[in-house]
Amino acid sequence: xxxxxxxxxxxxxxxxxxxxxxxxxxxxxxxxxxxxxxxxxxxxxxxxxxxxxxxxxxxxxxxxxxxxxxxxxxxxxxxxxxxxxxxxxxxxxxxxxxxxxxxxxxxxxxxxxxxxxxxxxxxxxxxxxxxxxxxxxxxxxxxxxxxxxxxxxxxxxxxxxxxxxxxxxxxxxxxxxxxxxxxxxxxxxxxxxxxxxxxxxxxxxxxxxxxxxxxx
Length: 216
Fold this sequence. Notes:
The strands form 2 sheets. The protein has an 8-stranded parallel β-barrel with strand order 1-2-3-4-5-6-7-8, surrounded by 6 helices. The two termini are 14 Å apart. Helix 3 packs parallel to helix 4 (93-99) and helix 5 (114-123) packs parallel to helix 6. It is of the alpha/beta class. The protein has a single domain (4-215), classed as TIM Barrel, CATH 3.20.20. Helices cover 36% and strands 20% of the residues. Strand 9 and strand 10 form a beta hairpin.
């Protein structure tokens, strides 16, 4: 199976259409984060999400750890998917579902060791998909994505094999390593940002090379 591709850090309507033309199945729209690239205002997230046609998924990336805040963000930004980039500390997944009916929930797991496998197995019961990334929540300034680093794909494969929901693989993916990543993990989807950008801007040539690299 060829994985679906989510292009993250979309900054404009033009970038959204460039990603869709290249073959993206989903777009990542980044709200406020403690670090990392691609942050845009809620108003622009809503603007981009409003023009993206079905069946393309629009992911609201949020660093909020509060269920009520996440519900408010989604209602303002009007994406069809919520990507929770940190652990919930206030409220529950059920509260988010009740507040955003019909919206898919994706939880990010920052793959760092055995504890990440256990966390993924527990969280998977509450969400529609997992996204396995290379951030670090323990730093003074948290890394919640966009690091450009790969992680231990053997752990990602174990997670994929032991959870009952689709898994997206993120973290340092490029045209040069995407085939190895797919072979190692067999994910449902791939998530990328820096690997298809030049000086922060989405690069049409790198997009083309990435999609070609998936099947080479």
